[in-house]
Design goal:
- One of its GO terms (molecular function) is hydrolase activity, acting on carbon-nitrogen (but not peptide) bonds, in linear amides.
- This is N-acetylglucosaminyl deacetylase, LmbE family.
- Helices cover 42% and strands 14% of the residues.
- With 279 residues, it is an alpha/beta fold.
- It has a single domain (3-278), classed as Rossmann fold (3-Layer(aba) Sandwich), CATH 3.40.50.10320.
- Helix 3 packs antiparallel against helix 9 and helix 4 (104-118) crosses helix 6 (135-151).
- The longest helix is centred in the N-terminal third of the chain and has 19 residues, at 52-70.
- The protein is globular.
- 43% of the residues are buried.
Length: 279
């Protein structure tokens, strides 16, 4: 049995970026641990979910439900405050430091402690842009890179080929009208270029678990007035198309050389090399 630790900024990030890989690893008998840096108290949602403290409780319950659907053995919250997407103070109302303002060495030390405790074989963080640039996501990259440095445990940076992402958003737009503030151009600059991808994981057999993980985060699927948010739009995509768009997950390894690997635990095999040439 190997151990994989998946490090994310907020509850629901795991559902979108790595839930298929998590479910695949768990189904294969590996130990899967999910670490979130924050409780997601500043997530965008309907006011029916209450104030940030109420929303935090909801989102932590949602991430546990998501983890249960994926076969995750343990969920850990590092306890930092959500930084949100707008101006906020350095500390939240309870005196906690915003994750984006946290000392990188301190946060990496907390993550490293979990990695060592779990005897992790690999762990995941985010690419240098933090995907779409959320300050907490950028911080996940910094903290993950530092934790990899101090522990020597290989890190894979969860990402998406940006050209495929834009295609997926265009497909979703056929079934759902995005809000006026939605900026598709920002996604054309987000995540990673196709040629940077070092690991591509086939998760088509884990689609049921991935959809369950997404559905678990109900608070992140609605806005005031009953309007849907992006997560709900993705779940509205018909299954055949959904399977095509979400049937693979991608990672970048800062140290990987050679053809694209199809296993987060093992280097490329000759079969992988042959398949990659055929593509």
């Amino acid at each position: 049995m190997s151990v994989a630790v998946f490090f994310h900024a907020h509850p629901d990030d795991e559902a979108l970026l790595t839930s298929g890989t998590m479910a695949k690893a768990a189904a294969a008998g590996h130990r899967v641990v999910l670490v979130v840096a924050t409780d997601g108290a500043l997530g965008l949602t309907s006011s029916e979910y209450g104030d940030p403290a109420d929303l935090a409780k909801t989102r932590l319950a949602e991430v546990q439900a998501s983890a249960d659907a994926l076969g995750v053995a343990r969920v850990v919250n590092l306890g930092y405050a959500d930084s949100g997407l707008g101006p906020v103070t350095h500390l939240d109302g309870t005196g906690r430091t915003r994750f984006s303002d946290a000392d990188v060495d301190e946060a990496a030390g907390k993550l490293a402690e979990i990695l060592r405790e779990e005897h992790a074989d690999v762990f995941t963080s985010y690419d240098p842009t933090g995907g779409y640039g959320h300050p907490d996501h950028v911080q996940v990259h910094r903290v993950g890179a530092r934790a990899a440095e101090v522990t020597g445990i290989p890190v894979l940076e969860a990402t998406v080929p940006r050209d495929l992402l834009v295609k997926g958003i265009n497909l979703a737009a056929k079934f759902y009208k995005f809000p006026p503030e939605f900026d598709i151009d920002s996604y054309r600059r987000a995540y990673s270029a196709k040629e940077q991808i070092t690991h591509r994981i086939d998760v088509r057999h884990q689609i049921k678990a991935k959809r369950a993980s997404m559905r678990a985060h109900a608070s992140q699927a609605v806005a005031d007035g009953g309007a849907d948010r992006t997560l709900a739009a993705f779940l509205r995509i018909p299954r055949p198309v959904y399977d095509l768009v979400f049937g693979r997950e991608w990672f970048v390894s800062p140290t990987h050389a050679g053809p694209v690997s199809h296993d987060i635990f093992q280097p490329s095999t000759q079969q992988d090399v042959t398949e990659e040439i055929r593509r």
